[in-house]
Specification:
alpha/beta, 4-stranded mixed sheet, binds oxa(dethia)-CoA
């Protein structure tokens, strides 16, 4: 028996109002606009208001995606939120969103995977829909990295921004829409990107607070090397799984961590740079949210045509890598 297909039927996004520019960062840490732009391609990023939390961003993006899909919130069977910055350790952000949306028929869970989380969540939603376990799944990526960086560490605090993106996955024709996924993990390299303390191994105490080991720590250069090597590999694997080549790709929508990584991946994959979307200048790295934010911008800018093939690629904490291949059917 052939499984039914799955497709994107709604998209939405939300970024907080406040914008933090490179010039603003020059007043906070020992950095320059020139260093940040030349090393990353970033100019500004959005930062949440003091009274906001991740679920507020997730809710706004989720509402927009459900409205775009033209379905009722009660049509949702499942809500998955990809985030490493939940409002609190538990309950999950997805539970808070489900309650506030009044999506009374939906189950809800979070998925914790850093920047790769959205593709993992999209693959999970696809499996639910193609198997018939769910008809409509709301997938949200929502992150407030500004709440977990060390604002005295110039090597990390300049890189990240806050934001959320969401999609609704619904049934579609077999072989169309969400076509293939590759979900990879290399747990032996977890140490390059983590919040080392403040969890069950080292609960938060005065020393943890003093040394700020409950904030994000990253060996940027190691992550850079793993990303430049791994992104083309996972991209090739997912294209092969979908039976496509680089010539078939209309848009590369890659994790927006650094313009140099996007350029290197485009070159290695032989995809023209103008077909690899880049908005890192405006948003910085919003972790799991970068890909749905970029897809929503492409959609709202009218750049997507029915039948376009989108290649999604991401890397992040874990160390994790993921690729997705979808045909635009809206
Ligand atoms: O989403 C996944 C999460 N992470 C990433 O994607 C990050 C991947 N890595 C990167 O994007 C890059 O490695 C960075 C942008 C983080 C850094 O670029 P880099 O070219 O790898 O620089 P580096 O870490 O090798 O540092 C070069 C220099 C160092 O100075 P010295 O030791 O050469 O004197 C740093 O101290 O740049 C210095 N530096 C800064 N200078 C001004 C580091 N951060 C800054 C800063 N402003 N903000």
């Amino acid at each position: 028996m052939e499984l039914r297909g799955a497709q994107l039927i709604g998209l939405g996004s939300y970024v907080p109002e406040r914008i933090l520019t490179n010039a603003d960062l020059e007043k906070i840490v020992d950095t320059t606009d020139e260093w940040i732009y030349s090393h990353t391609g970033m100019k500004e990023r959005h930062i949440i208001a003091p009274d906001q939390a991740t679920s507020d961003l997730a809710l706004a993006a989720g509402r927009a995606a459900v409205a775009d899909a033209g379905i009722a919130v009660t049509d949702l069977d499942l809500i998955i939120v990809a985030t490493v910055t939940p409002d609190m350790p538990f309950p999950s952000v997805s539970s808070l969103v489900q309650g506030q949306l009044e999506a009374t028929n939906a189950g809800a869970f979070d998925l914790n995977l850093g920047c790769t989380g959205f593709i993992y969540a999209l693959a999970t939603a696809t499996a639910y829909v193609t198997s018939g376990m769910a008809d409509h799944v709301l997938v949200i990526a929502a992150e407030t990295l500004s709440r977990i960086v060390d604002w005295e560490d110039r090597a990390t605090c300049v890189l990240f921004g806050d934001g959320a993106g969401a999609v609704v996955v619904g049934p579609g024709e077999p072989g169309k829409g969400l076509k293939a996924f590759e979900l990879w993990s290399d747990g032996s390299n977890w140490q390059y990107l983590s919040i080392p303390k403040g969890g069950s191994r080292y609960p938060c105490d005065e020393q943890v607070l003093r040394e700020k080991s409950n904030t994000m720590k990253m060996e940027g250069h190691e992550v850079f090397k793993l990303a430049v090597r791994g992104c083309p590999e996972v991209a090739e694997a997912v294209m092969k799984k979908a039976g496509l080549t680089h010539d078939d790709i209309d848009w590369g929508v890659f994790h927006q961590a650094n313009r140099r990584i996007l350029e290197a991946a485009a070159k290695r994959l032989d995809i023209p740079e103008e077909r690899v979307y880049c908005d890192v200048e405006r948003y910085g790295n919003t972790s799991a949210s970068t890909i749905p934010l970029a897809m929503d911008d492409l959609y709202k800018e009218g750049k997507l045509k029915t039948g376009d093939n989108l290649l999604l690629v991401s890397f992040g904490a874990g160390f994790s890598l993921a690729g997705g291949l979808l045909e635009w059917t809206k």
